[in-house]
Amino acid sequence: MGDMANSSVDFYPKSQRRELNHAGGFGCTLSELRSLMELRGAEAIQKVQETYTDVNGLCRRLKTSPTEGLSDNATDLEKRRQIYGQNFIPPKKPKTFLQLVWEALQDVTLIILEIAAIISLGLSFYAPPGEQSEACGNVAAGAEDEGESEAGWIEGAAILLSVICVVLVTAFNDWSKEKQFRGLQSRIEQEQKFTVIRNGQQAQIPVAELVVGDIAQVKYGDLLPADGVLIQGNDLKIDESSLTGESDHVRKSADKDPMLLSGTHVMEGSGRMVVTAVGVNSQTGIIFTLLGAGGEEEEKKDKKGKQQDGAVENNQNKAKKQDGAVAMEMQPLKSAEGGEMEEREKKKASVPKKEKSVLQGKLTKLAVQIGKAGLVMSAITVIILVLYFVIQTFVIDGKTWAAECTPVYVQYFVKFFIIGVTVLVVAVPEGLPLAVTISLAYSVKKMMKDNNLVRHLDACETMGNATAICSDKTGTLTTNRMTVVQTYMGDTHYKETPDPSNLTPKTLDLLVHAIAINSAYTTKILPPEKEGGLPRQVGNKTECALLGFVVDLRRDYQLVRDQTPEEKLYKVYTFNSVRKSMSTVTCMPDGGYRLFSKGASEIVLKKCTNILNSNGELRSFRPRDRDEMVKKVIEPMACDGLRTICIAYRDFPAGKEPEWDNENEIVIDLTCIAVVGIEDPVRPEVPEAINKCQRAGITVRMVTGDNINTARAIAAKCGIIQPGEDFLCLEGKEFNRRIRNEKGEIEQERLDKIWPKLRVLARSSPTDKHTLVKGIIDSTIGDQRQVVAVTGDGTNDGPALKKADVGFAMGIAGTDVAKEASDIILTDDNFSSIVKAVMWGRNVYDSISKFLQFQLTVNVVAVIVAFTGACITQDSPLKAVQMLWVNLIMDTFASLALATEPPTEALLLRKPYGRNKPLISRTMMKNILGHAVYQLTIIFTLLFVGEVFFDIDSGRNAPLHSPSSEHYTIIFNTFVMMQLFNEINARKIHGERNVFDGIFGNPIFCTIVLGTFGIQIVIVQFGGKPFSCSPLNAEQWLWCLFVGVGELVWGQVIASIPTSQLKCLKEAGHGPGKDEITDEEMAEDEEEIDHAERELRRGQILWFRGLNRIQTQIRVVKAFRSSLYEGLEKPDTKTSIHNFMTTPEFLINDYIHNIPLIDDTDVEESEAPPRRRFRASPPQSPNKNNNAIDSGIYLSTDVSKTPTSSSSPVSPLHSMETSL
Fold it and tell me: pTM above the 0.70 mark?
């Protein structure tokens, strides 16, 4: 690796290298740093020592100080950006408007229409020779007036025009959606900040502003934004699975493996690093560059496949233009790339863009059913028309098929075909997906104002169906502004802050040291921003409370920290969810060591064997004393809703150094200094919000790491538990004991006995939270399945956030890992924002239902009218162009109008719909059929006796190309008027009487209804031949309007019929039934991935597949032939992994396309269920399914893992077994 790295330097021409070397006088060139970041472990350390002597030497070359950081000098920062690049990876180019138009044109029904219209156009220009027209019978009758037969082309042209309209509208909607998504992305990216040291001060700067040479503070939960070398670290563990596919955490330390890579997650510990590579030069950036964030790269790769030999040289030249070292990595890719690129492009079209949410699943199913019905109807229509014509012409009139008449007959057949296709177009509700998109996009935009930053569009609709919320306590239900309110030290229980003069100096001194040193040095209490405000708390809030306590004792913690700076700390055991405590070792002047420890009181007290008495002397602390202390001190504190923290220390004598890695031997025999009770007050608006949730039929559960008494007290304050209710409050241990069988496996039946009553889960681990969420989601005991929302802020909440139907991460307190795994980010960390999300979610659902009710009425009526009209009068009363106009207003405009209704508080007064509630309820079905009956009655009356009523010529049985009649114009106009007024009816779907309620609160709706009305007037009065309309007089218009308004009256009549009497009505649009649950699980387990993550995943697969393709194939086959599958049931999904096991070649190439990393799909369908099913108990380490980037890469019999992990020397089989 070393020599290869050196060679990369030679890509620069000598002169350029010299210039770079001295550019700005920095002692490292870009390529040097890049080749350094290629190395790992011992190699890396050796390279640093050879080139720079040590990390400080590297800092000197980069003109930065390991302790003070860079100076905030704008010119210096700018110079660094120019030489080493910006910390920004250019995004993929968005699709152009023309591309979107092309995509919209791919719609099958539109293609059929286009073809029919073109044939019709072609035939209309062909005039049969005049003499024989008699011989063709009455076929050409009516075409006597010349102008009319000339105008035969208009219909075809009009159809093409309306197709263009539909396409443009669709493309525009897609375009604006894409634009919004990009805006959202950049908003999320701007919000990510990182802590750096500049001028010796900590500062939070946006990630894009990081430069090479910055000293960055790395802490638990961070997503690293750039590559760097560790200067100093405490117990640092990194999850590098997003780059390497290895799910085990990697220990990082300045003397063993100091390389930190961008895109990896900090799972434990803290430290400082010097940034060495940013943007496209960082490890993540290199992968992006390989992918070619733009399309031109793809083309290059296409060419590369064709000219394998010249590839290396070409690449090097290209790479020189980009930057040196990329070339080095580009070569290994060429073998894999060639053939697969084209395949990939082909696949791209066919792969669905993203996994459907519950609602989209129901809608697609419904649309397909309606489409099929429409297809049958249109086919029958065409057949009947053709048969009727043939029998009439050739049998009854006894004509023979003369050659010269062929064009005329064909023209008739084309006309019939167009009528058939039009029926189909009207029958297919293509407005449905549009309505969903508009409604979701509108909601997402508005939810921003309500402090909900939605990362995945469908989350907001799922939220409307939520039946359970599992919430964190700290920071979500409480203010996360903690203060110490009670203490127990020196045998005395103080109910408020003790006076320092009452404490022995020794105890006080130990306490101040224990708090100041044994907490993250990034945690600080800063002076208030405004006069008279509260001091600002920066960093971990519990530690802030303790530091605030030191300040209240009139001591300065900063002095203690200055005496023992962070570099001098001997060993740190950082806090994590397993330890639930933090310990720090310092060196004493006499050569001994002192360990300070703090943590959850019951955990730390168990390790204490001594306690300081009132004189500050040790006295022994036996289990009996401990029980008494728990009863007298800890429980009373907990019952007041306080978190109890125990602070302790231990001295090690000089001489033999203890074995620090054996933690269990180190953190025992402690001496308790004090126990403090920390209050975290409930947010004032939370009880009201929880009350709203309960009214809306949503169960709120609290899952917390706190003591059970504290948790119970807070739950009572919030209103999660009410006196006199039958509820359970459990601790994590007890919960596990109840849900596991003798073998320690989780049993769903046991879980089902517990969760319905469970309200508080205390002292819970991340695994418990994940188990609970999964248990509730998988449970089938109720009449409907549960939809679960989860809130979380810590790295350890990742698995639960991911498993939940909707994951909420905290915007302020949340770690990057939590945000990455979440669907919605609460920008104000407030529980009441969740209630707003529920409201918006239900609103989306209702908007879709409103639109459906309206759309289906139109469809039913239009199809029946076209069908029966065609059968009885050989011509559809509604012409193709008119149908398309109806389709346009009904689909596109109505979806806009009805999908943008604002939500009301009333939405929170009904129960959630749940997963398998049908889309079309009985009430809606009643409305649809009721209005259809009214409209059909009117239209058929007009069709058959309209000419008598209005005293006009009948439009029935008109020959081909005859002028448009007033009769059919009235039918068309009446039809549209009825739809317009029915659109107002559709605003209410639960049988409410007042359909005008709040109509002026929705300007879009009013504009669209009036606009449609205006355009309709223009079409009827001036539409003429293209729209087959003839102008109507005032009286006829008034009749049309009168019939339309009748819709509103009829709506009141329908509302009076009680739905319960109509047992015969079926509901439609169900979610999957119980037997189809697996499909739905797929939908839940797959999540949409942001563009960047998607690109990254592609990158990882490509990257590793390119490097190790052949090796991998052999290994994969071996792995699968091994006994891996013997103990596992065969997954019962549609496409099980077994189908891909025939030959290695087939396995890799075919399967690769199901891997999300390649395309825009998400985690593979075929694997989501087996993955869940096989994992008997979720893994201990919280990261197994922790971050969005690696969700496609960690393995539980995912094939995707095997190609990825193969870069490591471990065999895939081995890694499979470990993660299984």
Answer: no
